[in-house]
Amino acid sequence: MSVPDENPIAVERKIFSAVDRILVNIKVLIGDIGSNLKKLPKQSDHSCNTGDDEFDDAVALRHIEVNIHAEQLGAGVNRFQDSIGTKHHAEEESMPSLAEQEDEPARPMSGLHVRRLLDTLDGQLMQCLLCLAIFPPGEAIKKRLLIHWWLGEGIVQSADAGKERFNELFDRGLVQPALRRGHCRRTHYFRVHPVVHNQLVESLGFFRFLGHGKGNVDE
Questions:
Q1: Same domain for 169 and 219?
Q2: 81 by DSSP, 3-state: which?
Q3: Strand pairing partners for 142?
Q4: Would you tell me the crossing angle of helices 123-130 and 159-171 to the nearest 10 degrees?
Q5: What is the distance between the alpha carbons of residues 140 and 149, in angstroms, rounded to a whole number?
Q6: Distance (Å, whole) CA 5 – CA 167
Q7: How far apart are CA 171 and CA 176, in angstroms?
Q8: How confident is the model at residue 219 (pLDDT cuts 50, 70, 90)?
Q9: Cβ(153)–Cβ(202) under 8 Å?
Q10: Cβ contacts of 85 within 8 Å, gap of 6 or more
Q11: How does pLDDT run across 193-204, given as a tens digit for each residue?
């Protein structure tokens, strides 16, 4: 008596399960890469500043480029796991309070709320926001450095235009203040909440955006 062929669905499940185990090991290695990159000087670590703004910004931009490649690795593995149906998504949590650092009330944020906000953005503002996906969630980011980056990519044509675009993101709650000092109410540093970050990386095709080149988009 011949032995019937194994159910194709069962075969697929076994293969995908084996692939997922490999991907999990890869994610561990990517985590090690991330741990090492976290040792790089932070923008907010003023003790690392040389006093030369242009040099400091050039170093920071080099760190951005390195982090882009690390984000690509991690996002690629996540998409691979999504495609074989083995990645389990955790429920999104409410935004933790930033009151201890910001002295401002916390604003709860869900993935659905963020997606609705993103649907209201024009093409140029979307590109401005997509640049933030390469920063670790919750990290303090220098506003001036971000605007310089937008200028270098050709997304905005002037520093004033960059400030206007930043203010729009701020007013919509997509970025929030960080490292504020009691005597100064201006925003020099800001953060991106993990829920916003996740939507940028996973829902908006951030890495496809990286390959589209420079230039303003006005859709």
A1: yes
A2: helix
A3: 189
A4: 90
A5: 16
A6: 62
A7: 9
A8: very low
A9: no
A10: 16
A11: 888 888 887 755
Contact criterion met (CB below 8 Å) for 107 and 188: no
Determine which of 98-112, 164-178, 198-212 has the lowest per-residue pLDDT on average.
Answer: 98-112
For residue 52, give its domain range: 7-88
Whether the model clears a pTM of 0.90, i.e. scores above it, the answer is no
pLDDT in tens, 48-66: 555 667 777 777 777 777 7
Q: Which of 55, 88, 121 is the last residue of a domain?
A: 88
Asked whether residue 154 falls in the same domain as residue 199, the answer is: yes
Q: Are residues 158 and 195 in the same domain?
A: yes
Higher-scoring residue by pLDDT: 109, 209:
109
Q: Which residues of 160-177 are buried (b: 16+ CB within 10 A; e: fewer)?
A: ebbeebbebbeeeebbbb
The CA-based angle 204-205-209, given to 5 degrees, is: 110
Distance, in Å, from the CA atom of 33 to the CA atom of 3, rounded to the nearest integer, reads 47
